[in-house]
Amino acid sequence: MDNTLIVIPARYASTRFEGKPLALINDKYLIQRVYEQCTQVKNADVVIATEDKRIETAVKEFTQNIVMTSADHPSGTDRVAEVVKQLSHNKYDYIINVQGDEPCVQPEQVQALLTLLKGKAQIATLKKKIDSKKAEDRNTVKVVCDVKGKALYFSRAKIPSEHTHETHYFKHVGMYGFETETLLALSILKPSMLEKSERLEQLRWLESGFSVYCAETHFESPSVDVPEDIALVEDYLNSVHS
Fold it and tell me: Domains along the chain?
């Protein structure tokens, strides 16, 4: 049995959608839907990490697997690292960070991350092919990789910048897997120049010499960034369950 922990960070104070984890999607909390999807992953423990008592109260309606963390973490990765330290990091070989706004996350996506980690990747994440027009959207983070799937760079800009018939564009799907010791090492790094420029935490890791490998996913799983996304997710869920 693999010692895998899935941590779902859930922050109340979102600038674009305050209280987002407690938004209702077809009469279930958003955070509950993420949790239920993650519990479908075999041989893994699942916990929700939050700094807010309102989220804690709501989560305890459906599970006791919640860890209270500091409100001062600058990123979800830092929050996940605190959870690992609280739960004794020697207990787990692999840590999966699933964002709390991904109600349609698929167990197969988590398994893809674990496959990379068992292949000795330090950090694993996902990418999905998109078209040239979508690649122009600065809200969509793009990634370029080498032939072995190792990430070369992440950007909000369109990369590669020019399109030819051979060019492929990939968006970054913000789900991460870590070797436990790697995660703890990442949590003590200081923000880097590229990270500040692009506002992308993963560039801190690349600048510090860590390797990030990407598995390709074909699932189109809508996330919730703003209140208007709730209706889009409900439409998606209704379509797949009809």
Answer: 1-102 (3.90.550.10), 106-220 (3.90.550.10)
